[in-house]
Task: structure prediction
Amino acid sequence: MTKHRMKVKALLIDLDGTIVNITEPCIEAAKEATSTLRFQKIDVKIGLEIAKKLQSNLSLDETFAKFGIDKSMGKEFLKAFLDAWYTIVTVESTALPKVHKTLRKLSKHFQLALITRRNMSKELIKRELKRLGLTQYFKLIMTSQDVEKPKPSPLAFVKAANHLNVSIHDCAVVGDSIVDIQAAKSAGAKTIAVLSGLSSREELEAENPDLIIENISTLSQHLLESR
Result:
């Protein structure tokens, strides 16, 4: 991880695990999936592992085996989990600590775009952000439905930079997953990893981001000090 000062004009910010809490929705969705399929004694922490594997584009076969779900039922469980998760997260998600204050401060100095891998319409994302009181901070919102290839493809970041009329090299991607960092590097953006999601420090350090911080609440301190 490099130690140089970071000069940027725009921040391309991830949603789940970066500005909203992903843990509780994942656990609740696993509970609902387990209930829907009438599974017995399934540890609901499977929801966290599913989310992490999906974030990283990894196979879920080992996860299902670890939690005692037959491979033949894996697709059914995944569908039930995702159906529940998309319903729960849009109405029950909560902002991570100090997100309001941080985004308000950052938006005064940088253009902010929200780039999420969620496969849902931006209208639903806007509704969620409005409920959380965060809509006004973002000049652009993009979901997987707005690009031909979502993350880990760099396309969303490049498209966002073009929309904001800034060079991708003047953008920093802020995210909690290794896919965020990989896609940002492929795009040519600077990279800021946060530890508020499902990836560990070791996993994120392996991707060599420009900066690793505990959570987004400290971001303004790092960026504004370097201006």
Observations:
- The first strand starts at residue 10 and ends at 13.
- The chain has ten helices and six strands.
- The CA atoms of residues 102 and 221 lie 9 Å apart.
- The mean pLDDT is 93.
